[in-house]
């Protein structure tokens, strides 16, 4: 499969519209007027907006991550659609905070009817087969769950205000089951990463590492894995935020103590499969993902969100993980709702082009990381959707450009580009 030619039919409706728009503009560059480009983009933006508008006949709430609503309805018997699906959607729209987010209630029901009972049964009666299958199930869930919680921590919840008590409570139950420690995602991601924005004071910054070297990634991962529990509180202390320092440290240590007590006094076998393996796995996944998200950093302007993060149009990131592929859009506006990213991307497409932003298709963050370690820049170049000055560049030129953006920044580079450090 040639990633530069293949269009995945499993892309979301929004991704298909965005990709079609990008490819048309690239193919038609110079052959149509600026006014025609603007009109064409406006038409696509209106289609995208209608999908998110509850008052529009084209409104398309997300019910399941694997299927768009129309495809789901076409696959069901008419009586199931009428008596089960539509009543459920009507109910769910009155429960979730944003009406497009029916899928979040779907997944809460999924976790509380599978993950939680399975974990309780393992502690009551452990078997190795059940333990392994439980871990496999949680491994399948974790990507979607993590990006649901990503929305939760940025928006202060995912359910309507009258369900706030449950909205604030459920993460303390489900987070450890999926590998998260209590409140750590919020303090590290919202209060730290988005403030420092992959700069030199960001504890998960990639700029000091050669981003196509496995050894550098191992050092990067090891620092996070072994040191984040004390480095993050120290960072907040240096910033003068004692409250954040205490809270993130206490919650992290409480979670470790909880797992230790279960291991020692309840049973090490169920604790291993229910809590410890998901924790270890998620920490690896978070760092592999962040490495891919911030692997390409512009050598001239690394402080720009357009030039230090990327956009992906792919199934894994956007269908199953709440448009996580629109990472540049997310950094530009961290509280932007996940369904609004494609619209915002098209609206700001000229700025993306002018800033030499990178857009890829048919590849996710994990595979970007893998391809970097393989130094397969030609494959990555094939995945690039060219915009602006990138249009017309040869495959070798694109590969060379991408390789330049993975180079380690020296401390002198950092001082010149970022100014005073902590």
From TrEMBL:
Coiled coil regions in record: none
GO BP annotations, alphabetical order: lipid metabolic process
Pfam families associated with the record: FA_desaturase
Domain Fatty acid desaturase, residue spans: 128-352
Protein's UniProt name: Fatty acid desaturase domain-containing protein
